[in-house]
Amino acid sequence: MKNVRDRMDVISAYREVGSYRGAGVVCQTTPKTVKRIIDRHEGGGGPPARKERGHNYDTVRELVAERIGATLGRISGKRLLPAARAAGYAGSAHNFRRLVTKVRAAWRRGNHRGRRPGVWAPGDTLIIDWGVQGGLHVFCAVLAWSRARFVRFAADEKASTTLGLLAECFETLGGVPRTVLADRMGCVKAGVVAGVVVPTADYVRFATHYGFRPDFCEAADPESKGMVENLVGYAKRDLIVPEAPSVGELGAANTAAAAWCAEVNSVTHSEICAVPLERLATERDLLAALPSLRPQLGGAAVTRKVDKLSCVRFGSARYSVPKALIGTSVMLSVSHGQVRVLAPLLGDVLAEHTLVAPGETSIRDAHYANTRPDRPHRAPRAKTATEKEFLALGPVAEALLTGAAAAGVSRLGTELGDVLTLKAAHGTAALLTALERAVAFRRWRAAGIRSILAAAGAAPTPRPAGEALVLTLPTVPTRPLSDYAINPTTGEVIGEVTP
To answer: Taking the model in full, what pTM does it have?
Structure first.
């Protein structure tokens, strides 16, 4: 490429010689280069105008622009290619996708919605939404001005669950905002008329009880609630993935969620450059006061009578209550997968269980003042004089009796009488020692106990094997075999052999 000085030399040589070839010989370049430099100089010094080249997709450009406009920029090049082929396009699919990308970008520049950022006032708006991952539903709420975040887990997205978690959110925030902006979730939406969402009657009663205005975002418009959409994704990445909570452990999962909210609300938010908890302390003064009582959510509480097993039945399942309530009536309230046993008048929580499947039982050992044994224990009950005298010997006699019964000893009553005869002959102490050995070696009959007494303690007592005996053997010096090598010529030992 010629620099400015070279081009000036070419122009000067052309003026002196008057021909392209002669100027090329003088400047040691080609006539074409001389002509190009002279043409640029005579044209004003700038590069010549570039000639617009055609493309093989120019014939279908209008078709692509029409289809993109009709689909609001959503149609892809893959779906447009068959129509373009039918219209005469013969180029490659890659080149056609390039055309679609250009036309779509031009359409979006001229048809942008022109959004403006949200401007939030303190105490004005709470945004809520649901998310789900792995069968676990996560309820998320963000107080718009302070960015205070609230996250809880649930097993479903029913209206009672949503309203219950929203009430818990109000209690956590310490007040009620003026507006609650929700997605068009079916649990609180009765219908849509002319694009206007009609809330359910339960949601209206709930909003009236707390004193807020229910609002809904536009359909298919996630940007209008992007703040809570980001929270749903954040909770999935930073809470659900590391903790891996399950539907069967909602209590532990919600405890972890509360700790997570306390953590994220106590650090500086990147959008507002402030700590949400500090902003919430300021915003709480502008929130409406909480009502004195929670509204009734879901179905009404039902009455059940505590049976003799200190249990109540609900949904074909049993739930334990304190045994002091046997024979009394209690109220059952079911919400968020939890069964609460309430006092009829005061409403105090007497017991709380996780909802179980029909036919199952949920037991709390604290309701029975003892721990449930792994297997039932049926103690012997003496009726005859012989049985009473034998069981009076103590636990070892009871162990011998139950062991002999389990082993199927026939005529066990007669065997007990024979054992008591041995007591008169050998004494109580010797008999108890013999009974202990008989139980240990499963000698259930009187003849076996008699032989133990006859041995008078001379029989060996096997004990479990102890630790292995490890001996450290002495070490001796060793020598390699090369010390014993023999020279085949002389027959002498090559190495030095010492006795």
So the answer is: 0.52
